[in-house]
Amino acid sequence: MTPEPLRILIVDDSRIFRSAMAEALAGHPGVRVVGSVWSGEKAIDFVRDSPPDLVTLDLNMPGLGGLDTLSEIRKLNTARPGTPTVGVLLVSALTDRGAAVTVEGLSRGAFDFIRKPDGPDDRANAEALRQQLFEKIDLFAQRRRRSPPPAVPVPKPPPAVPTDQPGRFRAVAIGSSTGGPEALAQLLPELTARTTAPVFIVQHLPRGMTRYFADSLGRKCSYRVVEATNGEPVVSRTAYIAPGGRHMTLRGRDDRVTIALNDQPPENGCRPSVDVFFRSAAAAYPRSVIAVVLSGMGSDGARGLGPLRRGGGYVIAQDEATSVVWGMPGAAVAAELVDAVLPLEAIGPAIATLLEGGSPP
């Protein structure tokens, strides 16, 4: 049976760009454009009266701006319990301000984002827009149509160093992609209120966006949150974000750990790569690192968990029910390299308990 097409509302104050979006979407057999409006206020009215499946939302609009419109859509979702939520795909300009607002929108629960092409070749711009839209829409459709996930049994872990030695964990390593900014915005404030251990985050974001991501997280939690720099010594009460476009690794010597960045080829199509970072974390923090795999597309991170677990690390994966995309955590579970599969709200307390010397979940 052919699934119903996704109903999409286009929101942008530019008539020309709304037309470009509609033209690009017309080539996708699985979607139907049900509306095209020029303001946040019009978007809220449309969503209230006839909710679409997905809104493509321009972030830079006069009047009710993109972030405020996103917040109002989320309120409408909350007011309709038991019905499918309206997803939001952000449309961002290629500017510093566009990057900062996009990061904030992702932290507030937008599904993902695309960038407005602005090159000199109109044909190339149209193709870039079409490719971005098709990739994100297909991913959203997969998530939208999946059945409620069954309970995931925790796989029996391979032999590892015992995990019942109080206080032996000294660092937290987190990998995430699609859905990660929102998950981290929820996880990090609670976690950093209960510990002083350094936290390392590899979130798949383009070059130029991670410093705004660090600023956004820093405003939400009690830690200093920074975009990592090469040669930087690791200290407590600090969260380090891998810079977009560069691999982040750790180097340990004589109980001193420093950050090293490099431009080696991508792994799993990613730079920064979670796999690259997890392998280095296993060496820099032998038997003392907690690894977490959050929501994300693909399988980045699963291979890097091998050396980490063999070295005595503890691994937590976000469960499918609370993940925007269960690609990365699902791959880790399938590889049987996970100690606990937990809903997002349980991950922070579990990490804090382990760092405090409590029993693993």
Could you characterize what this model shows?
By secondary structure, the chain is of the alpha/beta class. It has two domains: 6-145, Response regulator (Rossmann fold, 3-Layer(aba) Sandwich); 171-355, Methylesterase CheB, C-terminal domain (Rossmann fold, 3-Layer(aba) Sandwich). The protein contains eleven helices and 14 strands. The chain has helices at residues 15-26, 40-49, 66-78, 96-107, 122-145, 180-192, 210-218, 274-284, 305-310, 328-334, 344-355; strands at 6-11, 31-37, 54-58, 87-92, 112-115, 171-176, 199-203, 224-227, 238-241, 247-253, 256-262, 289-293, 314-318, 340-342. It has a seven-stranded parallel beta sheet, sandwiched between helices. Strands 2-1-3-4-5 form a five-stranded parallel beta sheet, with helices on both faces. α1 packs across α5. The protein is globular and about 60 Å long. The termini are far apart. The model is unreliable at 147-166 (pLDDT under 50).
Topology diagram in text:
Layout: E1 6-11, H1 15-26, E2 31-37, H2 40-49, E3 54-58, H3 66-78, E4 87-92, H4 96-107, E5 112-115, H5 122-145, E6 171-176, H6 180-192, E7 199-203, H7 210-218, E8 224-227, E9 238-241, E10 247-253, E11 256-262, H8 274-284, E12 289-293, H9 305-310, E13 314-318, H10 328-334, E14 340-342, H11 344-355
Parallel strand pairs: 1-2, 1-3, 3-4, 4-5, 6-7, 6-12, 7-9, 8-9, 12-13, 13-14
Antiparallel strand pairs: 10-11
Helix pairs in contact: 1-5, 2-3, 4-7, 6-11
